UniProtKB/TrEMBL annotation:
Organism of derivation: Flavobacterium johnsoniae (strain ATCC 17061 / DSM 2064 / JCM 8514 / BCRC 14874 / CCUG 350202 / NBRC 14942 / NCIMB 11054 / UW101)
Protein name: Uncharacterized protein
Membrane-crossing segments per the record: 92-109, 130-152, 158-180, 208-225, 231-254, 275-294, 300-319, 331-351, 357-381, 393-417
Keywords annotated in UniProt: Membrane, Transmembrane, Transmembrane helix
């Protein structure tokens, strides 16, 4: 009972302290923790408190120190605020440099890979000819790709880690595809992917597309387990996972029953088969998004964000006029569906304070409006021809200005003025 009485007394004392008194006790405990003589500080400030003994004072200071969370807000236009903004800018520069480096590496592989292999085969014999034969080299590069993913996760520097991991992912995908297709040149197994997606042999489709996508997905799960702070790998997991699942052959026979959800006027259009496949895949991804969102579990937030970004890209593509050349009933219907989707995502993300998805919806809505603005004029004339192209360009500039103002206004409402639900 004695211990409980003391605990209740301390709690009562803390509840009666104001913010200034709590701050003084916090500073007092910091001085003691760091080995300084805190007596002069207490003598200077003890007149701010009611009379209580040193034991109560010490216990109050300990409890406030243990249960405090310090938030530092730099002054406006201060050197520290400028430093924090500089850190943010340089982080984005690092992201951009990593992305450019990955793209450059892939382009260099595509351009010089065949030439390099051919040089090694023709010039370096006999041992190197054996070591660098297409079959053996494929397995060697597959192991190198696995090593890049495994050891890339332990690299501390962000840009180098991102480049090494993505190089490993590319090698895992390309060389596993070469193994399954038994085609060891890039151009040949890329052709096999295109040829087998709608091919008549289901097993070839699974080997060519699904198996390599599963390998990449497992590698991405390992990367996220080892480097959870690099959240952009969630987007790549969703993309590779969709590729692995949707490449399964039975979806080809189900597509004709799924894509009419987005293209209900089936007899009106003569679309490319890839657009129908994208429509069916979008419906499946939309169902997955609704199922995950209905769980109300923050564990799925990153996956939901990735699905939303891919769904927005899909809807922007499917709603383009170029995919509805022969009839406009499906075109008008897709505009309605896209607007409903964008508004639904904005309401959902706002309700649960998912700031990343809020930004996706604002950016996706802006891109949709710009595309529709350009398409409106394309109904009557060519953008590049006619005397009014300068006025059209001026209208586009005004539209961008209005969208920028609208996003600023919306961000004030969504992020600043209204509290979280």
């Amino acid at each position: 009972m004695y211990g409980k009485t003391v605990s209740d007394s301390i709690a009562n004392h803390i509840s009666l302290l104001n913010d200034k008194q709590k701050s003084i006790l916090y500073e007092f405990e910091v001085l003691k923790k760091n080995g300084f003589d805190a007596a002069p500080f207490w003598l200077k400030n003890k007149n701010q408190f009611p009379q209580f003994n040193e034991n109560v004072r010490d216990e109050l200071a300990k409890q406030i120190f243990a249960n405090s969370h310090v938030i530092y807000s730099p002054p406006k236009d201060s050197a520290i605020q400028f430093w924090m903004q500089t850190q943010l800018l340089t982080n984005w520069m690092f992201y951009l440099s990593a992305f450019i480096a990955v793209c450059a590496l892939i382009a260099l592989f595509k351009r010089y890979w065949g030439m390099l292999i051919q040089f090694l085969i023709n010039r370096l014999a006999p041992l190197l000819k054996f070591l660098f034969s297409p079959v053996l080299l494929t397995y060697e590069l597959l192991l190198i790709g696995a090593a890049c993913v495994f050891y890339g996760c332990v690299i501390d520097e962000f840009v180098m880690r991102t480049v090494i991991i993505h190089l490993g992912l590319f090698l895992l995908w390309s060389q596993s595809t070469a193994v399954f297709t038994k085609e060891y040149w890039v151009k040949k197994y890329v052709y096999e992917i295109e040829n087998n997606f709608w091919g008549s042999d289901p097993w070839e489709t699974v080997k060519t597309i699904s198996f390599p996508a599963v390998i990449v997905t497992l590698a991405l799960f390992y990367v996220l387990y080892k480097v959870p702070e690099d959240i952009f790998y969630n987007y790549e997991i969703v993309l590779s996972g969709i590729a692995a699942i949707y490449a399964l052959p039975f979806w080809r026979s189900l597509e004709k029953y799924i894509y009419p959800v987005l293209f209900p006027f089936v007899k009106d259009d003569n679309r490319d088969r890839s657009i129908n496949s994208l429509g069916a895949c979008t419906v499946i991804a939309l169902i997955a998004f609704i199922a995950l969102a209905w769980q109300f579990n923050p564990v799925f937030n990153n996956i939901i964000s990735a699905l939303v970004s891919l769904l927005m890209l899909s809807f922007l593509i499917l709603s383009c006029r170029i995919n509805h050349k022969y009839s406009y009933r499906n075109y008008y219907y897709m505009q309605f569906v896209t607007v409903v989707f964008l508004l639904s995502v904005l309401i959902y993300s706002y309700s649960f304070r998912l700031n990343e998805i809020i930004w996706f919806s604002l950016i996706g809505g802006s891109i949709f409006i710009i595309i529709k603005y350009m398409e409106i004029f394309s109904f009557f004339s060519d953008w590049k021809r006619g005397k009014a192209w300068a006025w059209k360009l001026m209208g586009l500039a005004g539209l961008l200005w209005l969208l920028g103002k609208g996003i600023l206004y919306a961000s004030q409402i969504l992020f600043i003025v209204t509290p979280a639900f």
